[in-house]
Each structure stands twice: as structure tokens, then as C-alpha cells.
Design brief:
alpha/beta, nine-stranded mixed beta sheet, four-stranded antiparallel beta sheet, 15 helices
Length: about 525
């Protein structure tokens, strides 16, 4: 048995906390007093059919890792079923190609670079997600929602966890980027912590315990509107899968005559100027992790149906960025997956790093089995959640988010340009380098910060970003470069802080490599 769910009283005083109090106040008294929030409170009290919302967030999960997005190796029947009952987006993007910035963008509705620049300027770097940001958890709290966060947080340590950012129930929320192990006793990376950890026993798998906690929460909250974020640590490293699932996928590979991958030197790797990229989905351990995570979604969906809430519960499935498919030129780490036909993977500004699955089931609103090619990015989740919940928008907060409710109702339109400012890089790890990028319709422009290079791609005809059109389409290139410059000036220049961070990282990598070579010579 796991310990009871921990309910955390958030002491932080925010506008949304005040609105939550107003909701519970007699709205007629507010009206009589002429209070400016009276209309909000009265409307919130009268909405008895506000939908429950479940955000199922998978870590390091590429768009091509689902059967319904084209994988012929991974088996994802529950995710496919969600798509069959909802809407699948073909142009879903993350707010950044790496965990922390992507999650700050998701929770805040702001470009990660905007938050980073302001945090540095205001010297508020205690947590990755500053407490001054009003998350969608806080916004929905202010609209009368019960809120719960289960799983990977990675946005702050003690004093900066989900409980301080709008979630009154918190389970196994880790400040680290990964669990030390998916098997009991799980462990914690040095210098990090897990808030309200689950209790397990020998042989327990973390995904399963987090799923059980989510199911328990659903069963407890069946009479009140709730927001549940189930943020799995999977399918991030370490690569660990239940033995029976790993065996299943090994047999599948052998039956199909495909080499078993997931080794340090897989034969399917291809090399470009930045790193080495995996081109086949053949890692059986990773496949088992995907399989188990898919089963988790199925169990949560079944719990919602069993509780009689299926017709009034929104389920959103997405990821924080693309799958781990690329390593640095001198890095021999095992890789997880292939994002092909998209280029590269986690960490990269190329499509393999930013394209993610996005499936939404909104009963009574989304057409079953529908597909949308409207472009959506991670910052868009925030305003969309508010609109679906019937809550007021907060444009001063989600300044870089655009609600895609219109798309969910079947409308086709062109989203305004999407911007990425990749001020950090890990060339020694995932082979990526620094860049700014803009996607405007089918055109994507990449301005490399540490190279004298600009690239323009036509994603509609070249999703693999193989043909640079910058010199052919000079008018488009110059226009998009000007847009990037305007956006960089608006959000703040992060080039110099990023350069210094990169230099420090590469120096540590050189020192580590030197120590390893010394040990090898001493043997």
C-alpha cells in the first residue's frame, strides 16, 4: 500500500488565490458591494459541469514513438484508442528541446527564454520556475478546481515544488531530471529530492505506482472538478523495463529480422556535423518502457470511465520534447529511439528535438478520430486549458501561448509564427548546438549562434530538413531573420550567458575525459 495522498496547503498569496476565495464567497454579496470580481465568482459558482482535466505528460517521448503516428515497432494501443476517440495533431511542438525549459514554457505559457532572461535580470534564480510566475495550476485553482501533480517536476527544489505553484496534492515530485532507477527503491540523484515519495516493495516499477496514485486521486475526486497532471519519469533514462516486456520486444525484433539495438555502438547510427543519430527503432528496453507507459494511460482512462466521469473529462497526451536519438560525436551513450523522418532528437532545434505527440479527447467538442494539422506549441497548453474550463484568460501571464480550442472544434487556420531561442547547448552529450529558430507556416528558419550559418527549410516538402533554401528564397529568409531579431530584442539577449555556460560545460567535459584516459592508462 502507498501512503495516503499528501495534501499541501499553499501559503503563497497570489491573484489566483484571491479569486479562489472569491469563488467560495457569496457572490450576491459581492454583486451588492460592486466588487470587480463579482461576475467572475458568480459565474464560477454557477458552472456545475466544468470538465475534469487530465494532462498525461510523457518524458523524452518523440512523436514517432506511437503507433498512430507511424511507429511499426512500439505497441501503443491505449494511446491509439485515445486518438480514435479524440483529435490527433500532426504539428505538435514542445516549447523547447530539453526538459527544464520545455516544462517552464508549458506551466507558464511563456517562452522559456523570456522566463530565463527575467529571472537573471531580477536575480531570482532560486528555482527554474520562479514563484512569481502564475502557473495554469494556480489559474485553475482560482476557478475552483482541485489540483494534483504526480511525478517528475524538475523545476525547483524545496520551496519551489508543485505545492508552491498551484497544486494542492503532490505525489513523488522529483527535483531531478530523472529517477535513479525505475525499480524499487527508485533512489534519488545526488543533491536532489522527491516530495511525498511513493512507498513500494521489491520488484515494484515506478510507472505502476504513479499510475495507482493517479487512479486513487480520480476515485477520490469524482464529485468535484479536478486538474490532474500525471508527469511520468518514463521514457527518460535510465533504460529499465519489466523483463517480460523487454523479452517480448527482443523476440519481435528477431522475428522481423532486425538487429537488437540499444547498445553503445548501434550499427544504424548516421553522422552529421553535430553528432550521431539513430535511424531505427530497435531498442527493446525502451520499447518496454513505452509499452508500460501506454498501459498506464489505459488504466487511468478506465478509472475515469469506472467513476462515471468519461463524458466530462478532458484527456491530453503530450511530451516535453522529442525522443533521445542523437549523441555527440565523441559520446558513446546508448540511444533510445529514432525520430525519423524528423532530423536528430532531444536537445536539437531540428524537428526531431521539438516535434511531440499531441492527442486531445474532449467529449462533446472534438470529433472522434479527427486529425488536425494546425500548429501547436507547448506554451499553447495554458490558454487552452483555461478556455476549455470556462476560466478567464490571463494574457499578461500566457503571453506566448495561443489557445487551440478553435482547432479542437474542427477549425482550420494558420497559427502565428512559433519561436525558439536555444541559448544552451550540450554538444558533448546530445550533439546539439545553440540556435534561434522560427516556424512560420511551412517555412522554418534556423540561425545558428556559434556558426556563420542560416538555414531555411520547407517543412511541408522537406520534413527531414535536408535542403537549405536560404540562398534561393532570400526574401523569405530576410523577412524571417528580421522577425527573429525583433523577438530576440523583445525577450532579452541570452547569447552571452549561454556562451559562458557552454564554455563551462565543455571545460568540465574535457576534465572528465582527461580523468577517464588517465585511469585507462593506469590499468
Amino acid at each position: 500500500m502507498n501512503k495516503p495522498l499528501l495534501h499541501i496547503a499553499t501559503l503563497r498569496v497570489t491573484t489566483t488565490a484571491l479569486l479562489a476565495a472569491l469563488i467560495l464567497t457569496n457572490s450576491s454579496e459581492l454583486v451588492a458591494a460592486g466588487h470587480p470580481s463579482a461576475e467572475y465568482a458568480a459565474g464560477a459558482r454557477s458552472r456545475t459541469n466544468r470538465p475534469n482535466i487530465v494532462l498525461f505528460l510523457v518524458d523524452d517521448f518523440g512523436q514517432r514513438d506511437l503507433s498512430c503516428y507511424g511507429s511499426e515497432f512500439y505497441e501503443t494501443p491505449n494511446m491509439d484508442q485515445l486518438a480514435a476517440h479524440g483529435m490527433r495533431f500532426t504539428n505538435g511542438y514542445s516549447a523547447y528541446a530539453r526538459c527544464v525549459p520545455s516544462r517552464t514554457g508549458l506551466l507558464s505559457g511563456k517562452y522559456p527564454c523570456r522566463i530565463e532572461y527575467l529571472a537573471r535580470k531580477n536575480k531570482s534564480k532560486e528555482h527554474h520556475l520562479p514563484l512569481s510566475e502564475v502557473t495554469f495550476g494556480e489559474a485553475l485553482q482560482g476557478h475552483g478546481y482541485q489540483t494534483c501533480y504526480i511525478g517528475k517536476w524538475h523545476l525547483g527544489k524545496k520551496g519551489g515544488g508543485p505545492g508552491e505553484q498551484g497544486f494542492d496534492t503532490v505525489v513523488h515530485a522529483g527535483s531531478a531530471g530523472a529517477t535513479a532507477s525505475f525499480f524499487y527503491p527508485f533512489g534519488v540523484e545526488k543533491g536532489n529530492e522527491v516530495e511525498n515519495p511513493v512507498v513500494g516493495k521489491e520488484g515494484d516499477y515506478l510507472n505502476d505506482l504513479l499510475t495507482e496514485q493517479a487512479i486513487e486521486y480520480v476515485q477520490e475526486k469524482n464529485s468535484k472538478p479536478f486538474l490532474l497532471v500525471l508527469a511520468h519519469y518514463a521514457v527518460h533514462t535510465p533504460f529499465e523495463s519489466p523483463d517480460e516486456l523487454t523479452t517480448h520486444y527482443k523476440k519481435k525484433l528477431r522475428k522481423n529480422g532486425v538487429a537488437v539495438g540499444g547498445k553503445r555502438q548501434d550499427e544504424d547510427l548516421v553522422t552529421d556535423r553535430q553528432g550521431r543519430t539513430k535511424t531505427l527503432q530497435n531498442n527493446p528496453v525502451y520499447a518496454g518502457m513505452v509499452h508500460n507507459t501506454d498501459a498506464s494511460l489505459g488504466r487511468v482512462q478506465q478509472a475515469i470511465e469506472d467513476a462515471g466521469m468519461g463524458d466530462n473529462t478532458i484527456i491530453i497526451l503530450t511530451s516535453d520534447h522529442g525522443g533521445l536519438s542523437t549523441c555527440g560525436l565523441e559520446n558513446n551513450r546508448p540511444l533510445a529511439t529514432s525520430n525519423a523522418p524528423f532530423r536528430q532528437g532531444k536537445g536539437s532545434i531540428f524537428e526531431g528535438g521539438t516535434r511531440v505527440p499531441l492527442i486531445v479527447k474532449w467529449p462533446g467538442h472534438t470529433q472522434e478520430g479527427s486529425v488536425s494539422d494546425v500548429q501547436v506549441t507547448g506554451t499553447d497548453i495554458y490558454p487552452t486549458l483555461l478556455e476549455m474550463a470556462g476560466a478567464p484568460s490571463m494574457p499578461d501571464q500566457h503571453v506566448d501561448g495561443v489557445s487551440f480550442v478553435r482547432a479542437l472544434k474542427g477549425e482550420q487556420y494558420q497559427r502565428p509564427p512559433m519561436f525558439w531561442y536555444k541559448w544552451m547547448a550540450r554538444p558533448d552529450s546530445t550533439g546539439d548546438t545553440r540556435a534561434l529558430s522560427l516556424v512560420d507556416g511551412s517555412y522554418k528558419l534556423v540561425q545558428w549562434i556559434d556558426e556563420d550559418l542560416v538555414e531555411l527549410f520547407d517543412l511541408e516538402n522537406d520534413p527531414g530538413e535536408k535542403v537549405n533554401l536560404a540562398e534561393q528564397e532570400t526574401e523569405v529568409t530576410n523577412k524571417m531573420l528580421a522577425q527573429i531579431k525583433t523577438l530576440e530584442n523583445e525577450v532579452g539577449d541570452m547569447r552571452e550567458p549561454g556562451r559562458k555556460a557552454l564554455e563551462r560545460r565543455l571545460e568540465r567535459a574535457r576534465e572528465k575525459s582527461g580523468r577517464a584516459k588517465k585511469r585507462k592508462l593506469e590499468k
